[in-house]
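[stage:ingest] chain + small molecule (calcium ion)
[stage:ingest] validated
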Amino acid sequence: MALDVPERGLARSQRGGYTSRMSYLRVARSRLGILLALALVGTTPSRSQTTTNGYQPKWWKEAVVYQVYPRSFKDSNGDGIGDLKGITAELDYIHGIGVNVIWLSPHYDSPNADNGYDIRDYRKVMTEFGTMGDFDELLRGVKQRHMRLVLDLVVNHTSDEHKWFVESRKSKDNPYRDYYIWRPSKNGKEPNNWTSFFSGSAWKLDPATGEYYLHLFAEKQPDLNWDNPKVRHEVYDLMKFWLDKGVDGFRMDVIPFVSKDQTFPDLPKGAEAHPEFIYAAGPHLHEYLQEMNREVLSKYDGMTVGEAFGTTLDKTPLLADERRQELNMIFNFDAVRINQDNGHYRSWTLPEFKAIYTRQDRALDVHTWNTIFLSNHDNPRVVSAFGDDSAAYRVTSAKLLATMLLTLKGTPFIYQGDELGMTNYPFQGIEDFDDIAVKNAWKEYVVSQKVSAADFIANMRKTSRDNARTPMQWEASPNGGFTTAAKAWLAVNPNYREINAKQEVGDPNSIYRYFGQMNELRRKTPAFVYGEYSDLDPQNPKVYAYTRKLGEEKYLIVLNCSGEAVAYSVPGGVKPGQWVIANLARTEEHGSVLNLRPWEARIYKF
Ligand code: ISL
Ligand code: CA
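[stage:predict] done
[stage:export] tokens:
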């Protein structure tokens, strides 16, 4: 039975936006709902909901999320590694972007084979990042600023140094053996042909017992066995541990992979290049997520976003349709990965890109909410990948991307540094990289298969995850003010003298300040959240023009996604007084033709 759980965060939701006005009503309604339901046990309660354009309003639909990658955010103690105190010290900076949720990449105890995505202890803060006291202080600072904090839940796998795995590998009859996935060899080889995302087989032979364990990522990231109910309840307990501290939800790492077909058939022919579609199609996924929702999520007013690598659009409602009580929303990879196939750069066109959002809009109805993101810690910098990071157009194109991110339909996610227009890093050789994905790929392609080192580096310069992981550029001082150490854990981009927070916070025309303006506009414009989306000119190779319409309010967003001037005809034209915002100085144009400058973005209101 789907009962409304009273909003725990009433005080919080009273603060902002148009949800607040309805909070009292909703709480009153949900309490009444419970009473009614109790009175009418056995009958189906009819839920009268106030909807906006058919959508049930939720705080997380109206939110804008900012992702912090703690290792690279700010170092407070001079060891070259970002930490929690560093984040707390810069909460005003984050608040100034106009976001209201922070997603923190893993901050848990970890040996860092994959920068914290390999967890050794889910209830302990990574030593390099600080203490639980530092975490509590960060959480307090976030709440004081009326923001919310969402954690990264990495529970498809743990570190091989987690105590469960240390036990599990000891013997076949160890009580923790069944916490992971162990199989004997098959015909003297691995149990099947599954591959790891970080090169090679997904199986590793463990000498202690002569069996293989499964690791879809690094060898040091053994996959948990979710078919063991004890494992699932361990996960639910650790989720409650953090939710009870007051965090506001989770981003769930590769969550569709948790259920495995335990017969482990080989990857079908043709599926080898993209095993994620097989890994994401395990038999008990939805059963487990519904159980997680029942046991944990339904008891809190948190938000959940699943990193749904390997989930096709048609399967999205299975994870995120609100009536199914699984997740609130997922990350769909179609847009962010339009420029690469399995780590290999590929070119793309604007009509292909726009078609993705139209497809998403058509595939998801009012019950399934979407996310909008074009970057994160696993992808290149947004301005380098989707804009133009040359001196001429970096600022303008980064602002155009901000305009787009904050007006497409779905909860937007901004990755740290993108609000400054930080760019990809000029990698020269393999020694410049830290990422295990790159190092393993180097061994596979350059060392074993003799692919040219120059070609390999050229490709990684465009696609590598390390592009996004270089430290935040705070000011023009050495190491961009990220650390006082002689060396940061990963080199700071040499362009920190021009591109840094200090300069941008003080410059009213900066990308940072534009994000602030756009977020303010979004906060007061329900049409950008719940309004209908319509692409006006899908085949236009340079211009992305779309409308967002809610009731009588209609907005036109016109984006010149090219380095050339374009004369664009608007059906019906624009009139004086309809201009709302632009990323370049306002031009007094009206009539049916807009003379768009390179990378110009404008919004009009009808
Ligand atoms: O970027 C990738 C490989 O280079 C993707 O395949 C990525 O690994 C995939 O999107 C899953 O990502 C998540 O889980 C990984 C972790 O390395 C990523 O940082 C995380 O976002 C394993 O936990
Ligand atoms: Ca530090």
